[in-house]
């Protein structure tokens, strides 16, 4: 970068830019530019301290007179509970290398704070002599001025991003109309300060395989959503029990409601100003079974109580009257003290476990309400249909390690954050709900082999094929299609135990013996296998890995094995995009197009052109594209094919092929439902449709047993029972982020591109905070800000007739 700045070509470009800039300013007329009404001091008032525009360039100034400015100008860190250095300084300068180069260094600033006596307009932006901070009462807070907000919007949001050169070009053009936007570097530093304000700076980590990864703080991400009233009003913090009727949301999932452990499930519910916790005896409004005497006694309960146990009864929470500490006997003795401040959980046999009273989560909450927030985890590459030459990325095991540590801490201890709905601080607890990805990434997370080329292709059950030729036997085909039943299911605890056993085998057994055990167990931990290979081949790596075994032994294995409240065999649901659309739909579509003769292509194109898409809520079909690029379809095209097949493709099929496609279309109509009216009926009919489709498929050819996705369809019903409609755990809604990340990497500086990609999240925040302030004012006349103590507070606001915003408090 330094050599580039010193090159003759770079100096020539800078001279041309400065000459063009000065010519433009001269064309406007010096007197007009200096005596505009918006640059004059208010009548009768003191002289304005805003003297120089951020794009005003004195021609006489030399390059050596440039000096660095303090980057804390513009946004007041003190308003957000951060320390602030008051030593601000600034000097003006002409455009030089620091202004126009693609350097990631902090350059000269042109930040601006509007006069408090003026209403900001696009023509009133200029630069102060002394740097100041934006107060929270500013109409455009947290932006320093309206021009800074406009400049950020012009730079683009999410899918539409403007390059630095184009923005500078547009900025120069707008000066012809006396619109002076902030410099690109000014906006970049402003966004950097906003990231610091949100405490969401990316942190750099080094994986156990010595690859660099970057992560954001999970606590900040989820905490900011709770503090946003626009988002918080749509969140559910308690699981619902729909009784199998009208299932349409993840908060109705079976896992959240029934299958979390005692320490991970929802712990408390507030009622009438009191907090009632599980594993604490309350007093109801009907009767209290407190003993009358003062002798000590024990409270027993089963260690495992199924959700639908016949002995369980429902009691509305509003009938709870007293918490555990308020219960007393007839003689006034403490009910809890007499039972030894504990429950005794009785397990199988004579095993007994003490459960303390009060609930440990009550102690951690310190009187705060607990917000239980389950999250879904998603991993994917960003290649799309473009070349993967530059798509170098770490795998989900390395990326997930720091995230898993954060989630485990949040699920065990929680953290204090602000709830915009309650307008008070709460204790936030985060638990993982499921992991969404394509089949190879899901296989990595679950320590199973890549299904495409494995003799153990299923991550859910023990479908096994010891040798390649066995795939053609009737026994394997029966296991593959679940006739009469599926193979034995995998268990996550067994995977954890056998992974440790395989690591010990890699240290003591031969490579051939280790490979035999890998095939026997159907497991393949990418982390431990890579470490074992490096340990054998490189002395320095051997010493480093021995140190890892001694100091951090958990790092030598897949980090997902230690994620709390996560079952890899059940919480990696069958994803319909990769398993259905990119599975049988893709296979059968290519088979169909392979049968079409060149003379039939014009007729097929005509049928695509005649197909009406009005009832499908999709854009019009491009018939030429459907014919010319049928080998390069992505998920959305395969969805169109599935919907249009009976009307466009059936005239070109024989009877057997029509039966297969009819069964597939009927299956698709069930799979893509967004609301399940009756779960029992739905699962029964879905299972019949799956069996019907695979029956016709295997009649076509037994070689379909070579496609693992055909087998994974059978496990779809288990995923729907656990989480709800398949659309809830489909990755199609996440695919749109691929283009966003790709665009930001294209417009990065090619050096610190992680920061450039991270600005995606900041742009999302821009949209959220603008919408939040607008709607919050209209509905509640208040907004959320951070106080100097670093706490979220709710303050009243008022909107005047001219649209300005006033904050009180």
TrEMBL record:
It comes from Puccinia striiformis f. sp. tritici PST-78. The lineage of its organism: Eukaryota, Fungi, Dikarya, Basidiomycota, Pucciniomycotina. Residues 118-132 have a biased composition (Polar residues). Residues 50-74 have a biased composition (Acidic residues). This is Uncharacterized protein. Residues 82-94 have a biased composition (Basic and acidic residues). Residues 25-135 are annotated as: Disordered.
């Amino acid at each position: 970068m330094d050599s580039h700045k010193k090159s003759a070509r770079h100096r020539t470009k800078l001279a041309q830019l400065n000459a063009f800039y000065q010519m433009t300013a001269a064309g406007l007329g010096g007197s007009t530019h200096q005596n505009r009404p918006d640059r004059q001091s208010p009548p009768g008032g003191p002289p304005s301290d805003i003297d120089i525009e951020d794009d005003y360039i004195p021609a006489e100034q030399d390059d050596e007179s440039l000096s660095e400015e303090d980057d804390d100008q513009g946004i007041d860190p003190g308003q957000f509970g951060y320390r602030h250095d008051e030593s601000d300084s600034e000097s003006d300068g002409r455009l030089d290398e620091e202004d126009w180069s693609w350097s990631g260094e902090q350059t000269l600033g042109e930040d601006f704070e509007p006069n408090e006596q003026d209403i900001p307009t696009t023509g009133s932006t200029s630069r102060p002599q002394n740097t100041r901070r934006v107060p929270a009462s500013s109409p455009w807070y947290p932006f320093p001025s309206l021009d800074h907000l406009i400049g950020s919007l012009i730079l683009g949001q999410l899918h539409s991003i403007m390059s630095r050169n184009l923005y500078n070009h547009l900025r120069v053009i707008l000066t012809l109309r006396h619109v002076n936007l902030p410099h690109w570097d000014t906006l970049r530093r402003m966004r950097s300060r906003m990231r610091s304000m949100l405490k969401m700076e990316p942190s750099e980590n080094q994986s156990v395989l010595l690859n660099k990864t970057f992560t954001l703080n999970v606590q900040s991400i989820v905490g900011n959503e709770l503090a946003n009233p626009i988002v918080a009003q749509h969140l559910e913090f308690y699981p619902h029990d729909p009784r199998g009727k009208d299932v349409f949301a993840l908060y109705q999932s079976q896992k959240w409601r029934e299958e979390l452990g005692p320490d991970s499930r929802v712990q408390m519910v507030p009622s009438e100003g009191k907090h009632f916790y599980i594993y604490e005896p309350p007093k109801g409004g009907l009767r209290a079974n407190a003993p009358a005497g003062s002798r000590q006694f024990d409270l027993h309960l089963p260690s495992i109580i199924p959700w639908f146990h016949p002995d369980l009864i429902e009691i509305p929470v509003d009938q709870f009257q007293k918490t555990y500490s308020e219960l007393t006997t007839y003689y006034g003795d403490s009910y809890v003290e007499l039972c030894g401040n504990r429950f005794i959980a009785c397990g199988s046999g004579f095993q007994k476990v003490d459960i303390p009273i009060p609930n440990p989560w009550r102690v951690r909450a310190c009187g705060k309400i607990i917000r239980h927030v389950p999250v879904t985890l998603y991993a994917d590459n960003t290649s799309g249909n473009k070349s993967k030459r530059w798509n170098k990325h770490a795998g989900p095991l390395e990326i997930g390690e720091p995230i898993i540590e954060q989630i485990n801490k949040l699920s065990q201890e929680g953290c204090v954050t602000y709830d915009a709905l309650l307008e008070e601080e709460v204790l936030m607890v985060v638990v993982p709900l499921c992991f969404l990805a394509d089949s190879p990434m899901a296989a990595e997370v679950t320590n199973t082999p890549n299904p495409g080329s494995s003799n153990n292709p299923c991550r859910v059950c023990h479908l096994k094929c010891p040798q390649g030729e066995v795939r053609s036997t009737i026994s394997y085909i029966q296991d593959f299609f679940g006739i009469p039943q599926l193979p034995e299911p995998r268990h996550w605890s067994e995977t954890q135990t056998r992974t440790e056993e395989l690591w010990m085998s890699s240290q003591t057994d031969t490579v051939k013996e280790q490979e035999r055990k890998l095939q026997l167990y159907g497991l393949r931990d990418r982390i431990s296998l890579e470490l074992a290979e490096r340990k054998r081949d490189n002395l320095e790596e051997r010493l480093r890995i021995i140190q890892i075994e001694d100091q951090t032994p958990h790092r030598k294995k897949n980090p997902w094995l230690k994620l709390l409240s996560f079952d890899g065999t059940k919480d990696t649901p069958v994803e319909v995009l990769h398993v259905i659309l990119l599975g049988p739909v893709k296979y059968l579509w290519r088979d169909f197009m392979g049968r079409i003769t060149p003379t039939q292509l014009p007729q097929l194109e005509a049928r695509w052109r005649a197909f009406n898409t009005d009832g499908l809520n999709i854009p019009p079909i491009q018939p030429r594209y459907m014919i010319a690029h049928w080998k390069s379809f992505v998920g959305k095209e395969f969805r169109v094919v599935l919907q249009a097949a009976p009307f466009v493709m059936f005239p070109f099929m024989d009877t057997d092929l029509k039966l297969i496609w009819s069964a597939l279309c009927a299956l698709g109509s069930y799979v893509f439902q967004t609301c399940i009216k009756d779960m029992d009926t739905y699962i029964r009919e879905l299972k019949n449709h799956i069996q019907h489709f695979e029956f016709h498929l295997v009649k076509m050819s037994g070689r379909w047993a070579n496609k693992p996705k055909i087998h994974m369809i059978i496990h779809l019903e288990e995923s729907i029972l656990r989480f709800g409609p398949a659309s809830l755990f489909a990755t199609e809604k996440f695919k749109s982020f691929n283009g966003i990340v790709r665009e930001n990497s294209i417009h990065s500086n090619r050096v610190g591109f992680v920061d450039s990609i991270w600005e995606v999240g900041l742009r999302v925040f821009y949209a959220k905070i603008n919408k939040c302030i607008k709607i919050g004012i209209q509905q509640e006349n208040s907004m959320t800000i951070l106080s100097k103590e670093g706490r979220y507070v709710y303050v009243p606001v008022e909107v005047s007739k001219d649209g300005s915003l006033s904050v009180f408090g």
